[in-house]
Design goal:
By secondary structure, this protein is α/β, with parallel strands linked by helices. 47% of the residues lie in helices and 15% in strands.
Length: 275
């Protein structure tokens, strides 16, 4: 029986993690757009990986359930890399909550039902979740544990409470790390682990949209005033992803890894705090 690594979101970060953990395993690359999955699959196939593709809309339970069926038909799902999402400059409040928050909860639920013994998952969250002001304990618990199909009905997520896309994105990404904490307990019953990575500005097509979008000046300033003084690369995220999914990360689950070049540190205690 093959071991299967499922990559949801065939972008640069998902690919970078998959390259490090998928040798001798079957990689199922899934994306909203078939063309994106096919382009990534060609790169993987040329590098010697065993690869197949699928389309998926993570905001649809039916679509995600079909992906799970495809994955389990290929073998034992030993790894899930969830890197699909939309950014504040790319989508509406409603779309961000549906894809980034609800979609992630669906991925964790559906794949948590089938993940193999010894398996591991990584969800790509964001530094944005760390800059959202503290929520109440009740709000944290609601984001972490509300049944998936009721999640978008929470009072804190209604249009009168979430009025701009950045706030929606911050809530979604905070919700991702909270959700993973709760799901880690459930995944453990199957002998599996799951964690989040919260990257800062990583040079990808999505980041380029942000850097040249309406908030571009703010993002460029964020990079310039960070302790590291540069944006990150997908391969740097891939290195952390490989740790979390591999044997060296066997004691790590339900955790969130902030890797943002120190942007959040500067936001609270450095030059960015003076903005």
């Amino acid at each position: 029986m093959s071991q299967v690594i499922v990559v949801i979101g065939a972008g640069q970060i998902g690919q970078a993690i998959a390259r490090r953990v998928s040798a001798a395993k079957h990689v199922l690359l899934a994306d909203l757009r078939q063309a994106n999955a096919d382009a990534a699959a060609e790169v993987f196939a040329n590098a010697g990986f065993d690869i197949s593709t699928a389309t998926v809309d993570v905001s649809s339970r039916e679509s995600l359930h079909a992906l799970v069926k495809t994955a389990t038909g290929l073998g034992d799902v030993t790894g899930v890399i969830h890197a699909a999402g939309v950014s504040p400059s790319q989508a509406s409040v409603e779309a961000i909550l549906a894809v980034d928050l609800y979609g992630t909860a669906l991925v964790l639920e559906e794949f948590g039902n089938v993940i193999a013994q010894g398996g591991a998952g990584v969800v790509i969250a964001s530094q944005s979740g760390h800059r959202l002001p503290a929520l109440t304990a009740e709000q944290d618990a609601a984001l972490a544990t509300t049944p998936t199909d009721q999640l978008l009905h929470l009072p804190m997520l209604q249009p009168d409470r979430v009025t701009d896309t950045l706030h929606a994105y911050q809530l979604a990404k905070r919700g991702n790390s909270l959700r993973v904490m709760a799901e880690a307990v459930r995944w453990a019953k199957r002998g599996a682990r799951v964690n989040t990575i919260s990257p800062g500005i990583i040079v990808t097509p999505l980041a380029k949209d942000e850097l040249t979008g309406p908030r571009g000046e703010g993002y460029r300033r964020m990079v310039a005033l960070s302790p590291v003084g540069r944006a990150g690369t997908p391969d740097e995220v891939g290195t952390v992803g490989a740790l979390l999914m591999g044997p060296d990360g066997a004691f790590i689950t339900g955790s969130d890894f902030l890797m943002d070049g120190g942007v959040t540190a500067s936001y609270f205690y450095g030059e960015l705090a003076q903005a």
